[in-house]
Amino acid sequence: MNENNALKNHILNVASDLFYKKGIKSTGVDAIVKSSEVAKMSFYKYFPSKNDLIKEYLEKDCKVLEYRLRAELQKKNICTEKALAIFSYFAELSSMEGYRGSAFINVFIETSMDLEFIKDQSLKFNSTLIKLFYEQLNYDFSKDVSTKMAEQFTQLLIGAIIQAQMKNSCDPVLFAQSTAKELIEKNYAENCYCS
């Protein structure tokens, strides 16, 4: 990594931390410049506006999240267990000190869709979850059933993430996981490809 990319990534990492802890509206360029210990000109060299920085923050977070979830999925052998492992990942996150929910949900709520790219990135987060659930469920269920369940699981999970943040507890995510498991069992009885 060259020095320019290292500095850009440093600014992005510092901003990501501030955005997550304090929110994007409460975090100004001056605070990011001060915390990252760079000149304001350097900041603007890499991020012509705060919106450019927010967009990269959300894009980076989506890539990191998908990478981490795929790593978690590799730890399980049975596909339906992999689908439930997605809930486990978020339950673990929500039990950590300093947990403030999903960056996508937080930014979306904080901005009330002021910017189209925020809506787009939030929908991409949603689509990523649907895709990951679908990939696991499609081994045992038809395309239609897998699609429906993936969407149900995503809605359960997003609601649970919000509740976990509000209650400062992983219990809502574990409850959502339990509900997802019941849906899997119900659909196994009715629609499984298994012999």
TrEMBL record:
Pfam families: TetR_N (PF00440). Residues 5-65 form the HTH tetR-type domain. One of its GO terms (molecular function) is DNA binding. The keyword DNA-binding applies. Keywords: DNA-binding. The keyword DNA-binding applies. Gene3D superfamilies: Tetracycline Repressor, domain 2 (1.10.357.10). It comes from the Bacteria. Residues 28-47 bind DNA. PROSITE patterns: HTH_TETR_2. This is HTH tetR-type domain-containing protein. It comes from Methylomonas methanica. The lineage of its organism: Bacteria, Pseudomonadati, Pseudomonadota, Gammaproteobacteria, Methylococcales.
